[in-house]
Amino acid sequence: MTGSEARAPFITFEGIDGAGKTTQLEALCHFLQSRGTPFERTREPGGTPAGERLREVVLAEAMQPETELLVMFAARCEHVQARILPAITAGRWVVCDRFSDASYAYQVGGRGVDAARFALIERWVLGGFRPDLTFLFDLDPAVAGRRLAQAGTRVRDRFERLDQAFFARVRAAYLERAAREPGRFVVLDATRPPEALSQQVIAEVQRRWPS
């Protein structure tokens, strides 16, 4: 499935750890709920029982970068086929915390997996399926690191514990991906106040889907 004319929208939220994307995803969900739009909120890795078990593994266990990529796409394959496509074809919007762009940013940009190998796996698992709209919350890794340090006592997963050099590569890969698909991506300055970002997100959704 590649077209979006006969189905509900699929919207994703992306950004490095600490960029505040989950807060903005919640704001959009509140907006959709307030206008009576049927939707599902989900996340990657995860979104299905099998995906959530794979999430536990990939966030806790050290593994080779290629293995990491394959686990991510295994969870994504199940997610798309078992949850995302059924929802959007039934008329329910899907709002997702991360998707394939995150694998490009973290595994290709951050880990150094070959981009051609990534593209091959992405085509095999997704074909031409992509989000209709992707919000990328762009933030300097140094600022993101300070935010995470101030976030409290929550135990960080193994990705969140990586250094700023890793997240600088991830950020660069995200921006590279966004530059290649300007019609799908909306890049937002994550240093702006959360309320202002929420207004931008909702305004963009209303612009694209006014009804």
From TrEMBL:
One matching Pfam family: Thymidylate_kin
* Record domain Thymidylate kinase-like: where: 13-200
One GO molecular-function entry:
dTMP kinase activity
- Name the catalysed reactions: dTMP + ATP = dTDP + ADP
Give any single GO term for biological process: dTTP biosynthetic process
Q: What does this protein do?
A: Phosphorylation of dTMP to form dTDP in both de novo and salvage pathways of dTTP synthesis.
| Protein name according to UniProt | Thymidylate kinase
Species this protein is from:
Tepidiphilus thermophilus
